């Protein structure tokens, strides 16, 4: 069955675009999660939407499961690994990596799955740096399309990467092509497909975010005109429970949209862990860092128990200064915050990461978190909590207790918008030690249960826990996903099991 599939695909697109070598299967099965690597059956590299159609139709005929990836840099959430071993990885990014269009009048780009944040940044720079794309603080080689479909986000005004996408081309499970929005009109030469989000009929785009209903091969991405000046601001706070004050201030600043960026509220270990491995961890001491160790790191890096970062845009640095003074007054009322100006922050590598993120500049700064403990284990737990200071403190105390119970170091950055904050909880562990690997897994499951009991769901999830989170959803939600899967991919050939569907 599988041999017949590979033979048919090789005849259609060329044998050179199929790889089943031992080294390739090992690399594509790797991830950072406790559940172990997932060896694929093979890897196929399509070069066009038409070739994706050909592969999907062959998968239907031969009963082969496909697992599409863009650039495979979803570190901490699955990397390039399929949900289940034995699926065929469809690497869209190897050959489908073109920027198909950049419209400088309407400020949008059209990309294939392999276009990375770095590639888009470089192309916009080449064109005169008139526009910026909102970036993540993850790998610069991460795919823009894949990140948007997984509901990834950044930090600037266009932080909602799926929300600021417009118009998709999708290969459905039966091999047919669907275009969303104005793209559903055949033969249109106007740019409406990628600027008009709410066209006639149901909005189908959302069906293809965090699902396995189809394979997206093209997407429009809106671009932000690059401001002449970006001036950041930063505040440190000395105590863990200062989070309540911080969240309440951030809410007021964001509800009025006074601050155009999101506000990054990172704890000490999230920032210091990007810079150093744990100074206390060793094979003989697999316990979390001590409070004294945390204080020493804060003093060394001149950071707080919490550090707040954001930015303003304007015609010049001087023109932005009144806004800086207003935000300083907001954070300065209690006397607990210490202000770090933009010029000084440029000398702090951990704060330069925040400046880059707000400036649309991709970087590798936060990848240092992977080295906090040896062994390569890394998980992300990503709940969204309401912007109420008292609730924020309750949640962080609950999470700290769970981390401590399972011997993990509490690392988090709260990315604050007007009404909710995405909590970027990092679980870094020694994946090569079976006992610690098991503790990391149990820690994640305990966090998932504790937050769900409070009515708080995750926004994204590592592959190991897709089924767990789908099981937490109400039956009507699960049944609806199953029904849509059956309608759009009746043979179930596209990523069965992804996000707990099919």
TrEMBL record:
It comes from Bosea spartocytisi. The keyword Flavoprotein applies. Keywords: FAD, Flavoprotein. It holds the Pfam family FAD_binding_4. SUPFAM superfamilies: FAD-binding/transporter-associated domain-like, FAD-linked oxidases, C-terminal domain. Residues 36-226 form the FAD-binding PCMH-type domain. This is FAD-binding oxidoreductase. Gene3D superfamilies: 3.30.465.10, FAD-linked oxidases, C-terminal domain, Uridine Diphospho-n-acetylenolpyruvylglucosamine Reductase, domain 2, Vanillyl-alcohol Oxidase, Chain A, domain 4. InterPro entries: Cytok_DH_C_sf, FAD-bd_PCMH, FAD-bd_PCMH-like_sf, FAD-bd_PCMH_sub1, FAD-bd_PCMH_sub2, FAD-linked_Oxase-like_C, Oxid_FAD_bind_N, Vanillyl_alc_oxidase_C-sub2. The keyword Flavoprotein applies.
């Amino acid at each position: 069955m599988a041999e017949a599939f590979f033979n048919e695909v090789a005849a259609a697109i060329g044998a050179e675009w199929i790889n089943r070598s031992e080294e390739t299967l090992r690399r594509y099965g790797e991830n950072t999660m406790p559940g172990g690597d997932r060896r694929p059956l093979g890897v196929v590299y399509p070069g066009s939407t038409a070739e994706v159609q050909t592969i999907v139709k062959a998968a239907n005929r031969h009963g082969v499961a496909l697992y599409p990836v863009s650039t495979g840099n979803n570190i901490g959430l699955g990397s390039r690994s399929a949900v289940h071993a034995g699926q065929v990885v469809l690497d869209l990014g190897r050959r489908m990596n073109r920027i198909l269009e950049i419209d400088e009048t309407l400020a949008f780009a059209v990309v294939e799955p392999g276009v990375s944040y770095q590639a888009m940044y470089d192309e916009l720079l080449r064109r005169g740096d008139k526009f910026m794309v909102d970036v993540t603080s993850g790998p610069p080689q991460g795919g823009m399309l894949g990140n948007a479909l997984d509901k990834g986000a950044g930090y600037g005004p266009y932080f909602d990467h799926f929300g600021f996408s417009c118009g998709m081309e999708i290969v459905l499970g039966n091999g047919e092509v669907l275009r969303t929005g104005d793209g559903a009109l055949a033969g249109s030469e106007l740019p409406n497909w990628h600027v008009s989000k709410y066209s006639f009929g149901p909005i189908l785009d959302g069906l293809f975010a965090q699902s396995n209903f189809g394979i997206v091969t093209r997407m429009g991405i809106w671009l932000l005109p690059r401001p002449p000046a970006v001036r950041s601001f930063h505040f440190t706070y000395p105590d863990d429970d200062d989070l309540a004050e911080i969240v309440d201030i951030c809410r007021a600043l964001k509800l009025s949209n006074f601050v155009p960026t999101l506000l990054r509220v990172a704890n000490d270990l999230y920032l210091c862990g990007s810079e150093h491995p744990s100074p206390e961890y060793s094979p003989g001491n697999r316990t979390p860092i001590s409070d004294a160790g945390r204080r020493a790191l804060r003093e060394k890096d001149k950071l707080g128990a919490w550090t707040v970062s954001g930015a303003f845009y304007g015609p010049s640095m001087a023109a932005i200064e009144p806004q800086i003074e207003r935000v300083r007054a907001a954070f300065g009322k209690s006397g607990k915050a210490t202000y770090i100006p933009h010029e000084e922050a440029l000398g702090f590598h951990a704060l330069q990461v925040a400046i880059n993120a707000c400036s649309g500049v991709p970087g590798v700064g936060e990848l240092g978190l992977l080295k906090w403990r040896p062994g390569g284990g890394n998980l992300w737990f990503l709940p969204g909590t309401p912007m109420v200071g008292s609730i924020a403190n309750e949640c962080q105390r609950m999470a700290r207790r769970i981390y401590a119970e399972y011997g993990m170091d509490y690392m988090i950055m709260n990315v604050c918008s007007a009404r909710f904050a995405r909590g970027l909880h990092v679980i870094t562990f020694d994946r090569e030690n079976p006992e610690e690997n098991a503790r990391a897994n149990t820690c994640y499951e305990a966090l998932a249960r504790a937050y769900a009991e409070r009515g708080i769901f995750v926004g994204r999830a590592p592959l190991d826990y897709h089924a767990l989170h789908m099981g937490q959803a109400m039956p009507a939600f699960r049944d609806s996903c199953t029904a849509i899967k059956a309608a759009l991919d009746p043979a179930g050939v596209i990523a069965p099991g992804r996000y707990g569907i099919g």
